[in-house]
Amino acid sequence: MVISTKLTVTAAVVAATCTFGSISHADGHADVCATPTKLGDMGSFPGEVITVQGSLLGTDEEMFLNTVSCFEKATGAKIQYSGSRDFAALVVADMRSNNPPNIAIFPQPGLAADMAAEGHLIPIGDDAAAWMNNNYGAGSSWVDLGTYADANGNDHFYGFAYKMDLKSLVWYSPEQFEDNGYEIPTTMEGLIELSDQMVADGNTPWCIGVESGNATGWTATDWMEDIMLRTTSAENYDRWVSNDLAFNSPEVINAMELYGKFSRNDDYVAGGAASVATTSFGDAPKGLFTSPPSCMMHRQASFITGFFPDKGEEVARGEADAFYFPPFASGNLGNPVLGAGTLYTMAKDSPATRGFFKYLQEASAHEAWMQQGVFLTAHKGADLSAYATPLLRKQGEILANATTFRFDASDLMPGAIGAGAFWSEMTAFANGQDANKTADNIQSAWDAIK
To answer: Is the pLDDT confidence value at 23 over 50?
Structure first.
């Protein structure tokens, strides 16, 4: 399993975004366990130690430890957490040497699936899968993300998704929308109509940039993934990830051409279409805040606030907000969401470990982290009032109301594609290469590694 470079691109800015959104309880001065929803009976495990490995560091680690302290207080168990940037290599080594933690927290499903296939993970159980299906927005999607084949090829539910990230967002200036009389669109048809209206008004709808050093092109792949979820079925999206649906199929070329409708239209893009390939993804949203603004909208994941001129304080001041990248009304594909999520897996069984996975089902376990900030959940039973900011609440509502959730496709593809040909060819597309040639080149790269 190749862990895509795209994860490391965005990981570098997490620290910046974590400072925004209020770390109101991370220093321990408030009781994070005082949640809107009362914690249920978690059982009693006095003195039992649950070892946990993951990549949570800094503020995320603090918030995680604050949150699990509620389980410790309720049960008498002790959580022993070990976090590292080298988590992937370390946890694989520990599992293969028969020294696993009770719980391993994977940042994406690929490596978890590999460990399940090698026989290193223990199924959480069908009851937990049924619970998630019923209680998470797009529950069946989350169950699928946590379901892998064991060493004998039999599927089991291994990965409990807890703490999500959201990519299907459009950032804008509320003041500019109000001054120009623009309304938030709720359909893709409406978003295109709004873009055309902005052009007619003498405004530029979009800021788009795909430059990112050695990772140039990854922002274009995110656009493609979001559009694929809005123009074809989730099943076709999955087939695209595995290349059962060829990259040069009509469905993929259609999505690429729709992306081109936004990104290769001189009237739509600040600086013109030719600027897309050379504009840094981190500089692109700054056009929202120039005077006058050089663009009205920017599609990007929740982390992008760390690249705003004031590192996200614009949101707190009401100068920036985000809305859901909407679906086509005519597509009948529901409310799809693109994003990511950490997956909690069991590698060493114990009664206390089983109890911890029951804790993750509690609304209180989600609310404890929600009220600290920088946490999103698809848990439909979690009290939205627990979110630390209005923007986080809005993003939480998008997740809870989703009908389909899919992980970033390029992160699930082989590295030669997802962090290679897909990036480079989408950059070529930004430089004028046509959709058919772009799709053919990516498919040729797939064929070369089969």
So the answer is: no
pLDDT at residue 267 is higher than 50? yes
Taken in order of first residue, the domains within the chain and their CATH numbers are 5-166+338-407 (3.40.190.10), 173-334+414-449 (3.40.190.10)
CA atoms within 13 A on the CB side of 101: 22
70, 105, 388, 440 from 51: Cα distances, Å:
16, 11, 29, 47
Q: What is the Cα–Cα distance from 388 to 369, expressed in whole angstroms?
A: 9
Q: What is the mean pLDDT of residues 263-291?
A: 97
**169-172 sheet: strands from edge to edge:** 297-299, 169-172, 321-324
pLDDT digits (tens, 9 = 90+) for 185-216: 999 999 999 999 999 999 999 999 999 999 99
Q: Are 352 and 38 in contact (CB under 8 A)?
A: no
DSSP annotation string for 62-122: HHHHHHHHHHHHHH--EEEEEE-TTHHHHHHHHHHTT---SEEEESSHHHHHHHHHTT--B
CA distances from 154 to 148, 157, 297, 354, 369 (A): 8, 10, 46, 22, 34
* CA pair distance 151, 340, nearest whole angstrom: 26
pTM: 0.91
The alpha carbons of the chain give a radius of gyration, in whole angstroms, of 22
Give the mean pLDDT of 157-182: 97
Which residue type, as a one-letter code, is found at position 91? V
Please give the single-letter amino acid code of residue 391. Answer: L
What tokens were used for 44? Answer: 């009693």
Model confidence band, residue 30 (pLDDT cutoffs 50, 70, 90) = low
pLDDT of residue 6: 56
